[in-house]
Amino acid sequence: MSRFIIRGGCRLSGTHTVGGNKNAALPMLAATLLTDEPVTLTNLPLIRDVRTMLELLSTMGAAVELNESAHSVTICAGTLRSTTLNRALCGHVRSSILFAGPLLARHGTARIYPPGGDVIGRRRVDTHLDGLKLLGAQVGGASSYSFKAPKGLHGCRILLDEASVTATENIVMAAALAEGCTTIYNAACEPHVQSLCHMLNDMGASISGIGTNLITVNGVSELRGGTHAIGGDYIEAGSYMVAALVTGGDLTIEGVCPADFEVLERPFRRFGVRWSIHDTTLRLPGNQRLRTAYDFGDAIPKIEDGPWPAFPSDLMSVLIVLATQTRGTTLFFEKMFESRMYFVDHLIGMGARIVQCDPHRIVVTGPTALQATQVVSPDIRAGMALLIAALCARRETVVLNAESVDRGYEHIDTSLRNLGANIKRVPD
Question: Which option is the CATH number for 22-229: 3.30.565.10, 3.40.250.10, 3.40.50.10860, 3.65.10.10?
Fold first, then answer.
């Protein structure tokens, strides 16, 4: 275990190239099980969650060739010898559940232990299980999930009880090789869901309705290998943008997808933030005048998250830190996870003016001069938010549990130092 030590007050400026989208890479790694042919993924983020997924593939017998310098991996599942996942590795990553659909589709069986990941509230798997059952799977087990499809998988109409990203991805992967046509209504349509669907189509699947909440999958008999590029991570880009904004720096971010920023534009504009995008390069000017734009009649504005194209929950934590440095008052409404807001206790301890109304809603008034202290990172996104708060705080802040941030951000301390931050990692 290790911790970050940050001395605030340094402007973050320069150029940062975002890595591949974490939330796209994880299901794409699972999808490599849908063919016996080699699949190569490029622009692979070398973060802890990705490495755990690669370990899971290796323990099942898949051939994994990782080229770290090129940020690429080639996986061939033709050598698979087991459909039972490693219990300990499952407990380290939420995305282990994504192997259920591909293993069922190709091998008719799978055993997956309860997935781990961030503790930000209850993260149910019922939507996964219900969808796979409708396709013909039998699900059992107590300490693990046992999946069987003795009669194969068959297409059907599925109405999801929630627009779950990972459930949509799991069901799409299973349906790609199921017999007949599957329609998934109330499907998630996040960019990473779209990326997975495009990858599967490139492998020979027949998926339409990509980017909408009604996805149609016509099953095929087999899929082929190929090479697929992972798109830039807009969550990482948004996080670095906030780090530059609260320190007054100017930032150039390379490797972004302009379409992803349509959803982010309105919430950021609410705080007076402006940027420009040309091709895949985003320019964020320095010394921006951060001031809250109130609703009609000077009503306090509300920022709330939700399924795409609503504001993504993964950026809620860093936007709260931005609000602490913005003149005005804002209500934040976290709808997705009941424990995501608990990290604001650390911000309050640093001097932020925050009223926590309930587990889902807080009111933030800024700007506030934050004070250094010692905090603990509870999850990936809250950990990044606390790092950003430390960057603009007075004196030296210690952030414990640095490894939680490593699960979503590659070489975070090195990247921040390259932009001018005074940050170091030390072992506990």
Answer: 3.65.10.10
Q: pLDDT per residue over 248-304, tens digit each?
A: 999 999 999 999 999 999 999 999 999 999 999 999 999 999 999 999 999 999 999
pLDDT confidence of 222, banded at 50, 70, 90?
very high
Q: Tell me, yes or no, if the pTM score tops 0.70.
A: yes
In CATH terms, the superfamily for domain 2-19+232-427 is Enolpyruvate transferase domain (3.65.10.10)
Which residue has 């603009």 as its token pair?
392
Task: Pick the catalytic residue from 49, 118, 260, 413.
Answer: 118
Q: Among this protein's residues, is 314 annotated catalytic?
A: no
Residues 178, 153: contact at Cβ < 8 Å? yes
* Beta-carbon contacts of residue 362 (< 8 Å; ≥ 6 apart): 320, 331, 332, 341, 344, 354, 355, 356
CA distances from 260 to 58, 139, 380, 409 (A): 33, 36, 20, 18
Q: Report how far residue 332's alpha carbon sits from residue 305's, in angstroms, rounded to the nearest whole number.
A: 9
Domain ranges for the chain: 2-19+232-427, 22-229
In 320-390, DSSP assigns E strands to 328-333, 353-358, 361-366, 374-376
